[in-house]
Amino acid sequence: MKQSRKDDLIQAQMRPGVITRDGLLGDDTRALRDIIEADEAAVNRLGLSHVTLAARLRELRAAGARGLGDTVTVEGTFEISVDATRGRLPCPFGHPGLYPNEVVTVRNIQLDETLTFTRLNIHLIASHGFYEGVGSPYRLDPTTLARVLGCGVHQDPG
Ligand SMILES: [Zn+2]
């Protein structure tokens, strides 16, 4: 499907040097709608939703923020640090308001895997189902996200 002019304009905001130095697309050459649809399909296959994943990021960020810059261990599984705000970023989809550009690092101790994300990532997932383009420094692949955050069907109740 041909992408709309509106989506072209949104995607232009995601190029390097517009909102962030590296942009939000990485080396992904797909149309914005195609990136979003592919990630939505992945989220559906996991039996999850954008809102569920965003809520989990928000929850872990809030727990990490209590460390005031120091690493906090949460649920015996995650080491979380929240790096102080360095400026604010607008939403490329044109929402009003600015998102603190703090960097949250979540390490799953058991898996020895680490994720980094910003407040803008949480908003982009919750409101737009956008996980950034493949190769973008802050891309959050939904399958990796679910695994590291311990969300979804793979969890063993035993
Ligand atoms: Zn937005």
Beta-strand percent range: 15-25%
Radius of gyration from the alpha-carbon trace, in angstroms: 16 Å
Shape category: globular
Number of DSSP helical runs:
5
The tally of strands reads: 6
Question: Kindly, what is the distance between the CA atoms of the first and last residues, rounded to a whole number of angstroms?
Answer: 45 Å
What composes the largest sheet? Answer: 4 strands, antiparallel
Short characterization:
The chain contains five helices and six strands, in the order H-H-H-E-E-E-E-E-E-H-H. It has 158 residues and is of the alpha+beta class.
Task: Describe the protein.
- With 158 residues, the protein is of the alpha+beta class.
- A hairpin with a 4-residue loop joins strand 5 (103-108) and strand 6 (113-117).
- The protein has helices spanning 5-13, 32-45, 50-65, 119-128, 142-149, and strands at 72-74, 78-83, 88-90, 98-100, 103-108, 113-117.
- The chain is globular.
- Helix 3 runs antiparallel to helix 4 (119-128).
- The mean pLDDT is 92.
- 36% of the residues lie in helices and 16% in strands.
- Zinc ion is lined by residues 91, 93, 95, 123, 127-128.
- Zinc ion (ZN) binds next to helix 4.
